Every structure is written in C-alpha cells, then in structure tokens.
C-alpha cells in the first residue's frame, strides 16, 4: 500500500493546511510520498520534519516584521517576502527547520515550480541534504512559493522559476503517476470555488515580457485550476481519493498581518481534519 499526500498552495490560506497536517502528525498518520505547491511546500515541509505548530508559530511572530514581508522589501529587492530573512535567518537561526529529521524521514517530498522558459510545471524531489541557506532544496521550495510580479525569478542550474501554482495548482495527477494506492488531497478553497481569469494580465505581460510561455500559462491558469478542481471532485466521488477542504471561503489576506486571523484559519484546518479523522484512517487502512 503506497500512500500519497497532495497539498495545495494559496498564500496564507495555507494555515488551513497547517492545521490539517498537525492533526495528522499528532495521530501518527504517515505517507510514502508528498507533494506541495507554493505555501503547500513552504508549510508542508514541516510534515516531513515533524514540527507540529512551526509554520503557525513563526507566521504569528513575524507577520508584522518588516524583515519578513513588506512593500519596502518589494521596492528594494524585488521580493515582497524578503529572501535573506525568510529563507535564511528565519529557518536557520530564529525558528529552526529540523533538516536532520526532514532528510532522515523516508517519505519522499516534492515541490512544484513553474519553468519560466517553458511555462511548464517542474516537480523537484527534495533529497539533497544541505542544511544551509545555500542548499538546492531550499531554493526549489522558494521557487515554488515565489509569486509572479511580487517575486524575482529564482535561478537554478541556468533556468528561471516561479510559483508552481501557476502551472499545476493541485497536482493530483502527478501523485497518481507515482502509483499511489491511497491519496489525500488538502485543498484550501471550498468545493464549489471557481477561479476567474487573471485581472492583471497587462501587468503580468509587462513584468514577464521576456517569458511568453509563462505569460500564456498565466493567462490560462483559471482554466487549468477549474479543470483540476473538477477532476478531484470526480475522483473523490469515485472513492479514489480522500479530500479535506474548507467548507466555506477562508477569507484571509495573502500577506495576513493579524495573528488572530492566522490562528482562526489554522483552527479551521484542525477542525476539518478532526471531523474526518476516523474516515481518513479507514480510507488509508
């Protein structure tokens, strides 16, 4: 029996995912392979490192810290989320990511990024145990969560990457390709959510003018996303996947500054997981 975990992104909607994975950690639920997109990667990696409460904790502590995310950082560096702080100081000094546990955990962990030249999704397996801010895996995780327009492209091995959610927002089909017998999908939008076309394509075309394939991918993102949501519903109805999702829109800011709002969405994730815990255990076997 091979078990897979899929974690959608969605900026601070990812606090919902944090609540779900913490309940699973507390109850000893394990998977053979996991894939995270954007916030699903940056927060979801804590499932592999078994650090209950870590992403909620550091987001509540630093959500109002200008070193973490600010327009000052965007203007000065090109990144809304300050790279040296978010991917260096914070995880390696202030609220330490347990890389030893992460790399010793046999569960495979993938993050999804979008290749700017091709506009296609790239699935990177995080199995390069370099526990420093210069490590290749932390660069891929950063690429996965680097939102277009408010982030600089992340350069890795001569290629440029941005947010994986642009090309594969909820990678169930990727997980199915890994021959999993049981798959849990954690979504951060309710079942009936329909994504609308991008309102700011004019700005995207200007900022990403050197990457026409990426522009094309972003112009069609809503179609990709809605197709993935429909596919997940169909697989769920057929009993082929188990889905935990919010019952209603989470209504939280992408760069939420209120710790109580982060806590609220986290608690919604916990409540959803607890309410479905018995059914999830039965499904996973």
Automatic annotation (TrEMBL):
For the motif GXSXG, give the residue ranges. 36-40
Question: GO terms for biological process?
Answer: lipid catabolic process
Kindly give the InterPro entries that the UniProt entry links to this protein.
Acyl_Trfase/lysoPLipase, DUF6363, NTE, PNPLA_dom, YjjU-like
> What is annotated as the active site?
38, 163
What are the entry keywords? Hydrolase, Lipid degradation, Lipid metabolism
Signal peptide residues are none
- What sequence ranges are listed for the domain PNPLA? 5-176
Keyword Transcription regulation on entry: no
Record flagged with keyword Nucleotide-binding: no
Which one Pfam family would you cite for this protein? DUF6363
GO terms for MF = hydrolase activity
Quote the Gene3D superfamilies the UniProt record gives. Answer: Cytosolic phospholipase A2 catalytic domain (3.40.1090.10)
Motif DGA/G in this chain: where?
163-165
Give the matching PANTHER family: NEUROPATHY TARGET ESTERASE/SWISS CHEESE D.MELANOGASTER, PHOSPHOESTERASE
Name the record gives this protein: Patatin family protein
Q: Which organism does this sequence originate in?
A: Pseudobutyrivibrio xylanivorans
